[in-house]
Amino acid sequence: QETYTLRLAETWGPNFPIFGDTTKRMAELAEEMSGGRLRIRIDSANKHKAPFGIFDMVKAGQYDIGHSASYYWKGKVPETLFFTSMPFGMTAIEQYAWFYHGDGMELMQEVYAPHNMLSFPGGNTGVQMGGWFRKEIKSLEDLQGLKMRIPGFAGEVFAEVGVSPTNIPPGELYTALERNTIDAVEWVGPALDLRLGFQQIADYYYTGWHEPATELQFLVNKDTWDKLPEDLRAILRTAMRVSAYDMLVQSQHANAEAWANIKEEHPNVQIKQFPKDVFQAMYKANKKLLKEAAEGNEQAARIIESQEEYLQKTRAYTDISTRAYLNTMAEVE
Amino acid sequence: MIGMIMFIVALFMLMVGFPVAFTFGGVALFFGVFAEGMDLFAFMPFRIWSVMQNKVLMAVPLFIFMGVVLQRTRLAEQLLTSMGRLFGSLPGGLAISTILVGALLAASTGVVGASVVAMGLISLPVMLAHNYDKRLSTGTICASGTLGQIVPPSIILIILGDVIGLPVGDLFRAAVWPGVALIVLYIVYILILTRLKPEMAPAMPEDPTRSRQQEIGSALLAIIPPLALIVVVLGSIFTGIATPTESSALGGVGAVVLAIIYRQFSFQMVWDASKDTVKVTAMVFAILIGATAFSMVFSYTGGDYLLEDWLHMLPGGEWGFIILAMLVILILGFFIDFVEISFIIVPILAPIAEAMGINMLWFAILIAMNLQTSFLTPPFGFALFYLKGVAPPEVRTMDIYRGIVPFILIQILVLALIVVFPGLFGMSATN
Amino acid sequence: MRWIIKLDEGLARVSDLCGWVACVAMVLMTANVFYDVVSRYAFNEVSIGMQEMEWHLYSVVFMLGIPYAMRTDGHVRVDVLYTKWSNKTKAWVNLVGAFIFVIPFAYLIGTYGYDYVLDSYQMGEVSPDPGGLPYRWIIKSVIPLTAFFIAVAGLNMATFALRVMTGEKSYEVEHSGGGLA
Lengths: 333, 431, 181
Ligand code: NA
Ligand code: NA
What we know:
The structure holds three protein chains of three kinds. Chain A has twelve helices and eleven strands.
């Protein structure tokens, strides 16, 4: 029987926790389930040197599979923005439901098809933290001119309410925050933030709103996909889906551990939530930007509409189930 | 195995004397096309784009520009000769001054191409003009130019922090004492050497019309402006006005302002400085691009897997492991650059070290010290190429290769000290 | 022979033009970074567009500088053997090197770089960050353009080598980037 060796390029460096574990797990699963007929060789960013070239490399067939995040391609294909996580959007469970049982998957393939690729959910970080701030944000006023490292669409929302999004190379982020070159940094969540050491230099750790369920992606070159036999495609699909699920639970686990560590070893860190007026302003800004994105872009409009409709329905159920339960627990404890 | 053969071929081709950058690129092309086909080179635009977007490397042209302006306006010369005068009849004053200026620059950048070239521009002409030995001069400059790799901020430490998963701040703090130890030992070496062979680094000629007090007074006065510039650069980093990369632009603008104050300014001067900067910057980046093609072919033909296999054969035992790991990195440093080493070797060594209960901070500092050495070891030490690129023709490649040896030995000595007496540097070997 | 000289001088002008553009970019880049620092620190104003302009200019500096430095023989060589050789031998080294190393290398980067730019152009790629610069293909096109100019400078190396072989020119210092310091 023929064996297939697929080359996978990931945005992350070697040994990058959680994200990198996801690709390794996917490759192992695929190989095991196929009895060795499907092999996946992983190249990390140190090898291909193009963390943000995954889209182009998989599109051109230089790699068969990519592991990255859809919203990175927003500058190339604006509609890719919607398949990672949206401010004030769905939680991970809700979003997976939209992908697998709502219209999510179909819409995503529609966006990627013209680029000769398929995209699959690639693992979720859970709710990302709102960032490290050196000063407490007490009102909308405090955000005016605040210099913050916050990329992408969330950066645009922040910009709408007066923040100055600032580009700092990741290597200089720590120094820049430590010396007040910038006032705040958004990264991921406790497990990954801990590695960069922000807890040593910033006291206020804000809860998230901008990326409630950051979903990574597996990009698969369409020609590669087509040449795989039916059973190996099913194996690959399953391996991607299981490893994506596993990343969500690993994130939960690793973040809980890291947060326990921060609480114990860095008592200076305080968890904060933005004040109500800030949230309201950002909520409005988000709506406005979405409206702008939908204008004159039929595809974007359909995706936004699908997400909004789905969110409404699914949230109503989350409210009477998960939220109700958490509320109950809060009262009991 | 192709990767290994490629190294040997590249070594021979370099000796022919065709420009280093294109020799790397050309050898990579032959092996790459032979082993993988032309399409392998479809990765090159991505790799070049990564360099283009790497804002930290912007420090290279900006720093060089500062260096060129300081050199063209003779302010650098003034700084170094005045510092040298402070040493009076003691030989080696210029070399020690060079090390001290190098240490200051090291604290403001972590990019080796930037600091070595800037140091070369600032101090090589002065040292040669004062009849310093060529080898001693170039060795001192390369060594003090690479100090930036261990003295924070430093790219090596940032990369290691990322690969091992240690907070950058902890690494920066831990690297301070090893950096200081290097600086001190370099100076001690110069003092001992010039005691034995004063003719290698003659003392500055004395001005018979002036007393020693006057000498010192005028020297101090002359030091102030260029030193003020360096203080501005460093100060802007420490106060957070600028990131380390941005501070180098402040340095360039500051140098131009100094030129205006000293009536050395002209638009022609700025234009010429910019031309020199472009040439030297291009020389540095051409090597980077040639080398990235080289490392691309090396890893895509399986060189990285081969290295991994070799590493897994390292024997156990804490001391045996540490010593062999250091030896492997040192030897690899002769051939491949520090980024490749950090990303190929360290991910394999780190979990082994962690399992042995070795203190990872200490381990990381050992690796960083070791990687710093890799910039200096012939034949592929990039610092050596960079300095050669700006040196006058009478300075030969072999002068630079030989001149660096004592400094490499000092680095190995400090490395050994950190291994044996981690307490001296405020660290411990185990958790 | 006359046409070789004409060609050599013509090619040299192309590299000088690259150098001129790179020098202008160098001055602009220093001013750009300085401006960004001052406006952020003194006026608390940050423009992502201006921050991106920094590395756009920086890319032009080092990329277009490469052919320029080739023209002025500014790329570092290992001189263990090279300095001992006669002008004729040096000319052979440069002639052969230009055709087997420089031009093929530039050709591969150029063709793949062209595809890279074309893709970006067709997608209408822009910066993904808020307030970032549009028309990514422009800055990406520096890659194939530089490759083209490196090939031109490589040809220039060859024509100069031919002039040296006939004895009309000679290599004065082994590389003129040297002596800067
Ligand atoms: Na994030
Ligand atoms: Na440094």
